[in-house]
Design goal:
alpha+beta, Ribosomal Protein S5, domain 2, 7-stranded mixed sheet, 41% helix, 23% strand, binds (R)-mevalonate
Length: 322
Amino acid sequence: MSLKSNKKAIGESHSKLILVGEHAVVYGKPAIAMPFPLKVRATVKESKGPIKFKSSLYRGYIYEMPNEMRGIEECIKETLNYLNKPIRDLHITIDSLIPIGRGLGSSAAISITIVRSLFSFYRQKLSKDILFSLVTVAETYAHGNPSGLDMIASSSEYPIWFKKGKESMTIKIREPFHIVVADTGRTGNTRRAVTNVKKRYDLEKSNIQKSLAKIERIADESKYALVNGDNNLLGKLMNLNQQELINLGVSDDNLNKLINVAINAGALGAKLTGGGLGGCIIALGRDLEHSKVVADELVKSGVEKSWYFSTENERLYVSLND
Ligand code: MEV
């Protein structure tokens, strides 16, 4: 391996949204996710001494990171071990626009940027397989039993069809669609939500298995809707998916209320996205203008922030509380 390094290197990634199939994906069912253009960047520079880390959550040496960031520390160490480089003499800075713990894939996106930036710093080529195996180190610390969906979606530029342990596939969408994302401002806890579903699965196996089977059909039909440009059908399927997420026990009163606000504002469909029990909801607008109406209604109902965008272009619009 080359002994040379760059003086400074950057790695980038972005947020993700799960359109349908979260939680069921942990049980081997398919899910559909897509990129969400909130960016994150890691910058690596040379700096003598133990590795220093700077982010909105923590600033200091990696060996003193708080417990909830242990996965990031391990991911940095594993990456440097893989590169055969010393675990020292670096300064890593994270600049992220992704709110943390809102089901938007911030932990996977941050780990992706770190691995990418370290490979770039040491001028090494990074294959997808190596990227995913190094990011899995951090994701396992963060979520316990991750399906891998977050990291694949956060490193993809297109909507994807994902099944645990299988090669993901890009979905070619026929018609653009328009998504509203609303942040409740409440931190979800994916690890807790996944554990709750597992407990429920063990207690009420046949009920939960029925839900998982329904979600599988919803994912299949959603793929059909995307490939055929049937946004009305996609909206209906999002609503059906939400009913099953309620049955799995990962929605709550506040999420349900916001989903109703979106539906009453004319959204074609709405559901929670990601782990649930806090975090974000997504809604399907009729067009970009209508998505703004839905986003504004959600902000009036008290969400912290609402974004809307069209899959036609990368531009992200924000609706904020005054
Ligand atoms: C979290 O963004 C998605 C979940 O399905 C967990 C996972 O896939 O690992 C809830």
